[in-house]
Structure formats: structure tokens, C-alpha cells
Design brief:
Elements lengths: L1 E3 L2 H8 L5 E6 L5 H10 L5 E6 L19 H11 L3 E3 L3 H4 L12 H4 L2 H5 L3 H16 L3 E5 L3 H13 L5 E5 L19 H22 L5 H14 L3 E9 L12 E9 L2 E9 L2
Parallel strand pairs: 1-4, 2-3, 2-5, 3-4, 5-6
Antiparallel strand pairs: 7-8, 8-9
Bound molecules: pantoate (PAF).
Pantoate binds next to β2 and α7.
């Protein structure tokens, strides 16, 4: 695996390839990331991953400084997964001057849910993804469906700017008990880890209620809120939205259940597409 630390070095190395397939990450890689790398492999003529903890997408009180940085094991995992090129710039290499030119995604999508509770989050995400796209110039990029709204926001950005990049969604990778894999799961204590499965269980209960024909979506959401709150969680949202734009659905539209909730000091997110 070739490791490029700067944009010119990356571009020089990728010049020989016509169809890079790209998986951007912030490192601390788990099996979910590696599944995205494996999904990317047959889609291009070179598989590129990036590791960059992007300051722009963290609010001042969030975990930028403590975000787990696990360089050696990340490299080993990427090598084993068959990644060809790792782009791992430091902040100076990716942001040599303050990044004052930013991508502002459509607020109709990006100010909802995650964007509401983490203002500016999707500006940070879209700005770094646009910049990484400019560096790697991929023909295809794979993003996990666990960050459902992020995937939708990036798809919209790519469409609006007519970027010649196919955006592919990777299924959420779950532990045996159903917890969606996330770099932030490492923050959980043993007791919290045992409790954390309740987030996906609550989403499943919401999906089951919809499938069984319950029409009052607000009542389903309120019950889910109550369930998690009673167990000591602090939910930001537990909602049923239409898949097309994450707005409130009308009858018969394909739905997705989305959740973000804090367990102790760890904020977890998850979602479930509901097929009726
Ligand atoms: O999903 C992530 O890990 C990050 O938001 C991304 C897409 C790598 C941008 O920093």
C-alpha cells in the first residue's frame, strides 16, 4: 500500500490510473470501514482510502482533540483489506491556509436532524469531501449508510456540482447484538456497551410498528423517545422520515427511522430503512 502525505505526492501516484475508487475516513478503522474498502475494490482500477480527522466538522465542545487516532493498526487493517493507496495528509497539507472557502449544502436537507443538533456539521463534511474529491479525483466513492443524512447530503452536492463521481452507499455493519459499528463505540464503558444495543432495538420496534400498520407516526416516535429516556439515554431525535428528503412523510412513502442519542457522554447515531 502506497502512503501519500501530500496532495502533489498523491496526484503523482494516481496519475497512472483512470478510475480510482475512494473511501474517505477519519481513521480508527473498524470492520464497517473495511467492508466499504472491499466494496470499493471491484468498482475501480485502484482503491484509495483517506484518513483525516477533519476539524471543520467538529463543534468547539466536541471530541476533535480526543477523537481516537490509531495510525499503526489502521494501516495494517487497510493493507490486509487490499487498499492500494492511503492518503493521510496532516492539517497543513490539506488546509495550508485557513479554509475560508466552504461548501454550504442545501439547508433544506443539511439543517435537519444532525445539522440541527450539530450546526455547521455538514458544511465541514461537504467542504472536506469536496477537497478530498479534488485531491483523489475518484470516479466512484463509497460512504456508509450508517451516516444516512451524510450520504444523502453528499449525493446531493455531487449532483448539484455535476461532479463526475458515482456515489455508492455501503450497508451498515453491525456487531452480533445489532449495535452499528462506530469509531465512537470505543468511548463506551462495559455497562454502556451492553446498553447501547437498545438504540438499534428501539429503531427495530419503530419499524415493526410501521410494518404492523400503525398510522400515528408521532405516537411511535414519542414511544421510542420514552423508552430510551426511561433507560437513562438523552435522545436528540428518534424520527420516522421519508427516504427521499428526510422530511415528514405522507401515507405510503418509503420510510427510514433515524436516531441520535447520548448514552453517558457518548453520542450514537443509527438508522433503519423500513420496507413495508
Ligand atoms: O464519515 C466520516 O468518517 C467523515 O464524515 C468523512 C466523510 C470522512 C468526512 O470527514
Amino acid at each position: 500500500m502506497h502512503i501519500a502525505r501530500t496532495i502533489p505526492e498523491l496526484r503523482e501516484h494516481l496519475a497512472a490510473f483512470r478510475r480510482p475508487a475512494f473511501v474517505p475516513t477519519m481513521g480508527n478503522l473498524h470492520d464497517g470501514h473495511l467492508a466499504l474498502v472491499k466494496q470499493a475494490q471491484p468498482l475501480g482500477d485502484v482503491t484509495v482510502a483517506s484518513i483525516f480527522v477533519n476539524r471543520l466538522q467538529f463543534l468547539p465542545h466536541e471530541d476533535f482533540d480526543t477523537y481516537p487516532r490509531t495510525w499503526d493498526s489502521d494501516c495494517e487493517k487497510l493493507r490486509t483489506a487490499g487498499c492500494d493507496v492511503l492518503f493521510a495528509p496532516d492539517e497543513k497539507a490539506l488546509y495550508p491556509e485557513p479554509q475560508t472557502c466552504k461548501v454550504h449544502p442545501d439547508p433544506a436537507l443539511a439543517d435537519l436532524l444532525e445539522g440541527h443538533f450539530r450546526p455547521g456539521f455538514f458544511i465541514g463534511v461537504c467542504t472536506v469531501v469536496m477537497k478530498l474529491f479534488s485531491c483523489v479525483q475518484p470516479r466512484v466513492a463509497v460512504f456508509g449508510k450508517k451516516d444516512y443524512q451524510q450520504l444523502m447530503t453528499i449525493r446531493h452536492m455531487v449532483r448539484q456540482f455535476a461532479l463526475p463521481i458515482e456515489i455508492v452507499g455501503g450497508e451498515t455493519f453491525r456487531a452480533a447484538d445489532g449495535l452499528a459499528l462506530s469509531s465512537r463505540n470505543g468511548y463506551l464503558s462495559e455497562a454502556e456497551r451492553a446498553e447501547a444495543v437498545q438504540l438499534s432495538k428501539t429503531l427495530q420496534a419503530m419499524a415493526a410498528a410501521v410494518r404492523e400498520g400503525e398510522r400515528d407516526l408521532a405516537a411511535i416516535e414519542a414511544r421510542a423517545m420514552q423508552t430510551l429516556t426511561a433507560r437513562g439515554w438523552q435522545p436528540d431525535y428518534l424520527v420516522l422520515r421519508r427516504r427521499a428528503d428526510l422530511l415528514a412523510p405522507s401515507a405510503g412513502e418509503p420510510l427510514v427511522a433515524l436516531a441520535a442519542a447520548r448514552l453517558g457522554s457518548t453520542r450514537l447515531i443509527d438508522n433503519l430503512e423500513i420496507d413495508v
